[in-house]
């Protein structure tokens, strides 16, 4: 489990370093937007949260579950494009998940208009029914973030989300 956290942290650091190294300096590089704040961004979007299994009165962290992040996308003319979807890494033993979206993963002249996080997958047959607690089914809107200056990440937090047995 420590290895998974180390691997996730190392991957994040490498992504941030790559983003810094390949950032163009021309004005044309402002084609990537985080329209949730209507600001051009070269920041990596980070989405974190917790997933639990609720069985009766017990609530336990759910290791191995996955969240889905879906963003609406529009082109430079305001026309909607196909939504962009990414999956988080599997949750760790504490139910923690993390996902990243680099502005360089978005095609030129496109911008994100709204992103939401959803429950996607539970590894347990005995606890695999998603609930809408904190909008786990309907989609938790990514609304506010913390800026991690040292890693160039806009970190959004959602949840906690829960699965149940029935």
From TrEMBL:
Residues 1-27 form the signal peptide. Keywords: Signal. Pfam families: Pollen_Ole_e_1. Coiled coil: none annotated. It comes from the Eukaryota. GO terms for cellular component: cell periphery. This is Pollen Ole e 1 allergen and extensin family protein. The lineage of its organism: Eukaryota, Viridiplantae, Streptophyta, Embryophyta, Tracheophyta.
């Amino acid at each position: 489990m420590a290895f998974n956290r180390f691997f996730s942290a190392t991957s994040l650091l490498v992504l941030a370093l790559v983003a810094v190294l390949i950032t163009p300096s021309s004005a044309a590089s402002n084609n990537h937007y985080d329209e949730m704040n209507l600001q051009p961004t070269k920041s990596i979007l980070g989405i974190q949260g917790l997933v639990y299994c609720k069985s009766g009165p017990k609530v336990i962290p759910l290791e191995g579950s996955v969240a889905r992040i879906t963003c609406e996308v529009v082109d430079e003319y305001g026309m909607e494009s196909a939504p962009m979807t990414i999956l988080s890494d599997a949750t760790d033993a504490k139910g923690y998940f993390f996902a990243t979206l680099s502005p360089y993963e978005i095609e030129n002249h496109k911008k994100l208009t709204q992103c939401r996080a959803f429950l996607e997958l539970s590894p347990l047959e005995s606890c695999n029914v998603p609930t809408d607690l904190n909008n786990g089914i309907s989609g938790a809107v990514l609304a506010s973030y913390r800026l991690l200056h040292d890693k160039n990440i806009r970190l959004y937090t959602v949840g906690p989300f829960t699965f149940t047995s029935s």
